[in-house]
Structure to design on (641 residues):
């Protein structure tokens, strides 16, 4: 966990003895048992581990979607656990981008409108956000598909639209939850190349959950979860 | 942002045209029903008012025991009117054009193979002038016929048509229950009244005839009186009241046990009735509007469940709770407003057609249109709020995981 960055720069994300307990009625379920994690600006982090190991819970906490039961989460120095639900929404709106395994695009809506969506919540005027959305679609190579609805796109194309939606706001961090989980290997490679490019060229920090070690190999750091704890760190990859 | 939300709602509705149309059907029907009922009710009131005032403002009516009522309805000491009361009125009160005592009852009219259930009015020739009837054919009663209670009759157009069709009825004999009766005249048609009753459906016979030979009574049910032009009905009314009190020996401190109504009173009674009816029908229609609102709530709840992942995505992307709430609320309100507009169009069309076929005037009432529209919007807010709040309070993680 000790690396050269840590001494020179402050971490973008800092998790300190984070634990999460779900009250399932009869017995409490310990999803996270006090993890420590620092993520620095510009990193590409792969999160691995079997299902039930706590990696999804960790992603939800990182995404400010779910508050931890105990511990401290600093995002850009802000204590996330002290924020209200709406304040966390504003934080997500301005600094985070999400890519999901199931794409989660709006049905019967064009690619362009899907990419525009986060800009709508930012209150950006129509003409400007349309232009930005077109640019983002161009960045993922889907200029010609802007006016096609979600249903008319292939899985790989849908995931690229989702990536465009995540990066259109120029977020600090992109959280990707098994982004290649529903794709074949060729589409997976395309998606990974896109993510790598945005990480390298734009300095967007990426945290990606994956089961596949060849996808994790794109990252420059890997962590492994088991039983609610981080068990391994791997440096490098690319 | 509001325009944005409305635009979004419109797009959402367009995406599910069929479902949206079915959702709003309840509101459409509710608003249409309110508007149709109230418009027709207003038309009927106007029609009744104009019809009664066309009878002339100089008409008065004396009824027995219709004054102040106890809890049991008719007063127990109500005393029936008699033919002598009518005679006294016409002799002792000045400024009257005609006085017509009336006794009526239902009867079966029979001629040959035809028969027709109608009303038999027993009165005098004065009845025709008081109620503005004119003869189309034949003649009035003679004095001898009236005094002697002869079996002669004058037919309303409906009865003539039912019993005789194309034949000439004058001089023939019809039967009214057990009474054989010579037809001496036919009245000119007046058509339907505003209350939907056929005014031509009656037979007129002399008062004494119905009293002695059909009803076996000395009573009179009503006395119709018309004042001469330029004579105040208020004064005539007061004179008649004084006269009948005298004849009945009613003490100073006792109430009338009869009632004299002038046109104003008759009109306010009738229009009061139609107004109450209008209000009742409108209220029933308003209930269907509420039911329509529940329909919207149902579909919005289904929509929230269906779009759980979308809501989760929006929340993850950074939508505030209130933005999601607004989105669904606006959608419900836009839906119900569409329903309201469609209902207004449908209601006005139905009211116009209804007014045409009932023969009453179509009176466009902008007030009720605005109220119905606002009410439908309010229904949208009221019944859209619960599903919208449900959407806004979803846990984004669970919503994203929703299948």
């Amino acid at each position: 966990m000790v690396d050269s960055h840590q001494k020179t720069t402050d971490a973008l994300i800092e998790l300190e003895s984070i634990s999460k307990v779900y009250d399932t009625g009869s017995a409490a379920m310990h999803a996270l048992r006090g993890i420590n994690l620092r993520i620095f600006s510009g990193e590409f982090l792969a999160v691995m581990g079997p299902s039930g190991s706590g990696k999804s819970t960790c992603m939800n906490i990182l995404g400010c979607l779910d508050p931890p039961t105990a511990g401290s989460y600093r995002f850009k120095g802000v204590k996330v656990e002290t924020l209200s639900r709406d304040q966390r929404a504003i934080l997500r709106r301005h600094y985070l981008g999400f890519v999901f395994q199931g794409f989660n695009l709006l049905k019967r809506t064009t690619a362009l409108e899907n990419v525009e969506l986060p800009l709508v919540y930012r209150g950006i005027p129509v003409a400007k956000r349309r232009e930005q959305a077109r640019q983002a679609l161009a960045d993922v190579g889907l200029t010609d598909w802007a006016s096609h609805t979600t249903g008319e796109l292939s899985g790989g194309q849908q995931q690229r639209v989702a990536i465009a939606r995540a990066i259109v706001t120029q977020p600090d961090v992109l959280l990707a939850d098994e982004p290649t989980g529903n794709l074949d290997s060729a589409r997976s490679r395309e998606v990974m190349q896109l993510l790598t490019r945005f990480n390298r060229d734009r300095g967007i920090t990426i945290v990606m959950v994956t089961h596949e070690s060849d996808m994790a190999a794109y990252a420059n750091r890997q962590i492994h979860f088991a039983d609610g704890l981080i068990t391994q760190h791997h440096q490098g990859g690319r | 942002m509001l325009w944005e939300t409305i635009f979004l709602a419109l797009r959402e509705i367009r995406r599910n045209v069929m479902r949206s149309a079915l959702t709003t059907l309840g509101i459409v029907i509710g608003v249409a029903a309110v508007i149709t009922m109230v418009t027709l009710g207003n038309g009927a009131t106007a029609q009744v008012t104009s019809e009664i005032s066309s009878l002339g403002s100089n008409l008065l009516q004396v009824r027995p025991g219709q004054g102040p009522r106890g809890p049991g309805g008719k007063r127990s000491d109500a005393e029936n009117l008699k033919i002598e009361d009518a005679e006294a009125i016409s002799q002792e009160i000045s400024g009257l054009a005609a006085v017509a005592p009336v006794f009526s009852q239902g009867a079966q009219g029979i001629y040959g193979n035809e028969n027709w259930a109608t009303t038999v009015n027993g009165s005098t020739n004065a009845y025709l002038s008081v109620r503005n009837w004119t003869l189309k054919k034949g003649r009035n009663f003679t004095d001898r016929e009236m005094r002697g209670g002869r079996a002669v009759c004058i037919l309303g157009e409906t009865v003539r048509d039912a019993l005789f069709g194309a034949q000439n009825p004058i001089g023939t004999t019809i039967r009214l229950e057990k009474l054989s009766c010579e037809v001496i005249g036919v009245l000119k048609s007046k058509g339907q009244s505003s209350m939907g009753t056929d005014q031509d459906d009656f037979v007129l016979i002399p008062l004494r005839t119905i009293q002695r030979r059909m009803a076996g009574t000395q009573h009179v049910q009503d006395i119709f009186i018309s004042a001469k032009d330029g004579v105040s009905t208020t004064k005539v009314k007061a004179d008649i009241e004084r006269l009948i009190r005298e004849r009945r020996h009613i003490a100073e401190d006792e109430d009338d046990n009869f009632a004299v109504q002038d046109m104003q009173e008759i009109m306010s009674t009738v229009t009061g009735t139609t107004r109450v009816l209008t209000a009742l029908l409108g209220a029933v229609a308003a209930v269907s509007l509420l039911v329509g609102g529940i329909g919207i709530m149902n579909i919005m709840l289904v929509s929230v469940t269906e779009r759980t992942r979308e809501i989760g995505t929006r929340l993850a992307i950074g939508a505030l709770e209130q933005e999601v709430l607004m989105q669904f609320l606006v959608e419900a309100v836009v839906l119900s407003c569409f329903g309201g507009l469609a209902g207004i169009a449908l209601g006005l069309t139905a009211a116009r057609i209804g007014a045409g076929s009932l023969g009453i005037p179509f009176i466009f009432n902008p007030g009720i249109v605005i109220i119905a529209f606002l009410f439908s919007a309010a229904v949208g807010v009221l019944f859209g709020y619960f599903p919208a709040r449900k959407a806004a309070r979803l846990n984004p993680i669970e919503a994203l995981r929703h299948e």
Remarks:
- Residues 185-202 of chain A form the longest helix (18 residues).
- The domain at 43-66+86-235 of chain A is CATH 3.40.50.300 (Rossmann fold).
- Chain A has a mean pLDDT of 90.
